[in-house]
Design goal:
By secondary structure, this protein is of the alpha+beta class. Helix content is 25%, strand content 16%. It is built from five helices and seven strands, in the order ααβααββαββββ. The protein has a three-stranded antiparallel beta sheet with strand order 3-2-7, covered by helices on one side. The protein is flat, with a radius of gyration of 72 Å.
């Protein structure tokens, strides 16, 4: 039985031991090779470079072209011919004019001038519409009591459309006095006035007129 066990052990192959021995041999071989190798590789001899000089031959530039020939001179003009002008003989002096005989006019020999035509009649003058002052004096605008208490004064400019009969057809405030009560009083007074209608070619026409109305406390 003992011999059989020994035989089994010898027949078995130990892979671990084999790998270990192979690694040991490889390590020792590598160390041996390192010992045999020199510490630094021999320096290679520097090759001397040959200095090669290249020579290039440059051709000279071509000669410049010859200058162009000068232009031919223009032909000379012949000198102008001098022509002498023949002076005509002097003319004789003119004969003196005959004396002028003037006859003295008499009142009987001159005809009387024709009578002047009558002056044309003067063209009719165009007259613009205007205010009839007499109606303002008869019916002056009333000073509002509120304006008197508050001492309001000012000037109202009215725009009045005057008909052909002189009656106001439309009264508006063109420029306010700044106080409403004064403007209303001026409009109310102007509606009661009569005006002078405008005239064109002698005929009355309807037109506008600007009428100023002053409000002053000193006139009270």
């Amino acid at each position: 039985m003992a011999s059989d066990a020994y035989q089994d052990q010898t027949e078995r192959f130990n892979w671990r031991r084999t790998l270990g021995l192979a690694a040991a041999f490889a390590l020792h071989g590598f160390a041996f090779m390192m010992l045999l190798a020199p510490m630094s590789p021999p320096q290679a001899k520097e090759k001397l470079k040959d200095n090669i000089v290249t020579v290039e031959f440059i051709e000279p530039p071509p000669p410049p072209p010859p200058p162009p020939p000068p232009p031919p001179e223009p032909p000379k003009k012949p000198p102008p011919k001098i022509v002498e002008k023949i002076k005509p003989p002097p003319l004789p002096p003119p004969a003196p004019p005959p004396p002028i005989v003037t006859e003295q006019a008499t009142p009987m020999s001159t005809p009387a001038p024709p009578p002047a035509p009558p002056a044309p009649p003067a063209p009719p003058v165009d007259i613009a519409p205007s205010e009839n002052i007499s109606y303002r004096k008869m019916r002056p605008p009333k000073y509002p009591p509120q304006a008197v208490r508050e001492h309001h004064t000012g000037k109202v400019l009215l725009k009045v459309l005057i008909g052909v009969d002189g009656a106001p057809k439309e009264v508006t405030v063109e420029k306010s006095s700044g106080y409403r009560e004064l403007d209303q009083s001026a409009v109310a007074a102007a509606k009661t006035w009569m005006f002078n209608p405008g005239r064109r070619d002698g005929q009355p026409y309807e037109g506008y007129a600007l009428i100023p109305v002053d409000f002053n406390l000193t006139d009270l």
